[in-house]
Amino acid sequence: MPGVTHVRRDPSDNLRVAIKRREILLRCLAISVIILSGPVVSAQQICPPGTPSGPVQAPVFVTNLAGQTSWFASPVVYDLDGNGSNELVAAYYDIYVFASNGTLLDRAQDGDGRVYAPHVVADLDGDGVTEVVAGRGHQVWAWEWTGSALTVKNGWPADTTTGGNEPEIRGMAAGDLDGDGQLEVFVQTFDHGLDVFTIPGSATNCLM
To answer: Residue 188 belongs to what H/E stretch?
Structure first.
């Protein structure tokens, strides 16, 4: 066709493009853990570069940690007191905190009803004390982790009761929605949509 230049493509070019795409994909797959540290969001690899010890093996059962009936609240692994050792926070009807070796450190039994939605672990007010926030029944509870124990935070629980109805909390998240430097807690309920609670004096740099 006049005015059109036809270029014969070297088959090796396709191979080089395919290899490059594979390298980019592998880099993306290696970045799997997002860490929030102050205002900076960084990424780390789950496994640092090294020599594999062999093919991937089947998972091995380690132990079972006693609890209650669970719903949709996934456990959270977090260093609650900043001592370099992680704790495991699990929500059932009550909130359980386990040490890294599986020892039950504390159990919060405040309120009524089940913890249906995922809980939030955060330093709500930036004072260096980590809080655990969970919806139990129609109430939003916050506990401070101090002295290896959960203590109800002053001013909590918050209530989602509307028009005399006490809806079960079915979803929860926290974040700085409006960019004012303070956290909001977002609570989805069974019957009236989404409640938003502001936390005066809160900080956004330690959110799990």
So the answer is: strand 184-189
Q: What is the pLDDT along the chain (208 residues), one digit of tens a residue?
A: 444 333 344 545 555 545 555 554 444 444 333 333 333 333 444 556 677 778 888 999 999 999 999 999 999 999 999 999 999 999 999 999 999 999 999 999 999 999 999 999 988 888 889 999 999 999 999 999 999 999 999 989 999 998 888 999 999 998 888 888 788 889 999 888 889 888 765 544 334 4
Cα–Cα distance, 95 to 109 (Å, whole number): 7
Q: How far apart are CA 90 and CA 183, in angstroms?
A: 22
Tokens 């101090």 sit on residue: 146
**Cα–Cα distance, 81 to 76 (Å, whole number):** 14
